């Protein structure tokens, strides 16, 4: 009996260890599944945000198609982790229809500048993410090399234009408020960005000429302003001397 009891105790301990190991394994798998699902959801949200940003940033049909394919691929991967999700199945169906129709609204040719700095930063971040996605999809073989080079060049120039236009806008505002020093700094930053551009096009050439002329005008205005200030100080000093050496009145 004693031997049987010992065997039973050992068996129970082994079973408990096995059950605990199986439970821990299930928990690890569940944690990995949650982490992978969260990663896919973040990738999906980033891609969808870029598509929504097309209202301000012009996207070509090739880029829109690439983004929709990326969304579809991500949704299918998420469905493998959550096979019973009706929402994922519906979104997959909707995305497939958008790809088949091929009539998604794209941004216009002109760049629409946001009204505040926060929106400008968001737009630039969106373009940076898009360039990263472009390279990642090229690595997966979802877009050809020539298209990547052309699209990345176009996105690089869009990013430059946003940077330049935001600096010019700040410069115009500062100049309108008679803050010539601040205005000059903004225009100089815009000019430096344009001068450092490796791919000069008509926009870069024209904007460089315009900004250079504005900086020359500001330099003239500052020079004239300094001259007026010196004249004013000289007149004030002269008035002070006149008062100092004027004949004293006897009371």
Helix-strand layout with pairing:
Layout: H1 2-52, H2 61-81, H3 86-101, H4 117-139, H5 145-176, H6 180-195, H7 202-245
Helix pairs in contact: 1-2, 1-4, 2-3, 4-5, 5-6, 6-7
What keywords describe this structure?
about 250 residues; 7 helices; about 80% helix
Short structural summary:
The protein has 251 residues and is mainly α. It contains seven helices and no strands. It is elongated and about 115 Å long.
Distance between the termini: 135 Å
Unreliable runs:
240-246
Element-by-element helix/strand order: HHHHHHH
Query: What is the total tally of β strands?
Result: 0
- In terms of DSSP E residues, the strand content is under 5%
Can you describe what's shown?
There is one protein chain. This protein is mainly alpha-helical and 251 residues long. It contains seven helices and no strands. The chain has helices at 2-52, 61-81, 86-101, 117-139, 145-176, 180-195, 202-245. It is elongated and about 115 Å long. The relative contact order is 0.06. Mean pLDDT is 83; it is low at 240-246.
């Amino acid at each position: 009996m004693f031997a049987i009891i010992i065997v039973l105790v050992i068996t129970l301990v082994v079973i408990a260890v096995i059950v605990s190991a199986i439970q821990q394994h299930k928990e690890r798998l569940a944690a990995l599944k949650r982490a992978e699902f969260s990663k896919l959801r973040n990738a999906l949200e980033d891609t969808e945000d870029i598509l929504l940003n097309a209202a301000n940033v012009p996207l070509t049909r090739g880029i829109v198609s690439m983004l929709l394919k990326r969304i579809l691929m991500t949704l299918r991967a998420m469905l493998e982790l959550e096979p019973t999700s009706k929402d994922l199945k519906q979104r997959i169906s909707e995305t497939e229809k958008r790809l088949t129709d091929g009539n998604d609204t794209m941004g216009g040719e002109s760049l629409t500048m946001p009204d505040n700095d926060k929106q400008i930063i968001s737009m630039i971040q969106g373009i940076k993410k898009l360039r990263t996605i472009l390279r990642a999809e090229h690595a997966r073989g979802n877009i050809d090399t020539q298209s990547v080079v052309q699209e990345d060049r176009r996105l690089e120039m869009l990013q430059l234009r946003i940077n330049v236009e935001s600096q010019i806008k700040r410069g115009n505002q500062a100049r309108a408020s008679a803050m010539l020093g601040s205005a000059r700094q903004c225009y100089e930053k815009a000019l430096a960005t344009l001068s450092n551009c490796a791919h000069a096009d008509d926009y870069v050439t024209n904007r460089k000429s315009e900004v250079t002329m504005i900086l020359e005008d500001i330099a003239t205005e500052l020079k004239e302003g300094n001259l007026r200030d010196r004249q004013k100080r000289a007149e004030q000093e002269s008035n002070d001397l006149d008062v100092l050496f004027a004949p004293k009145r006897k009371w």
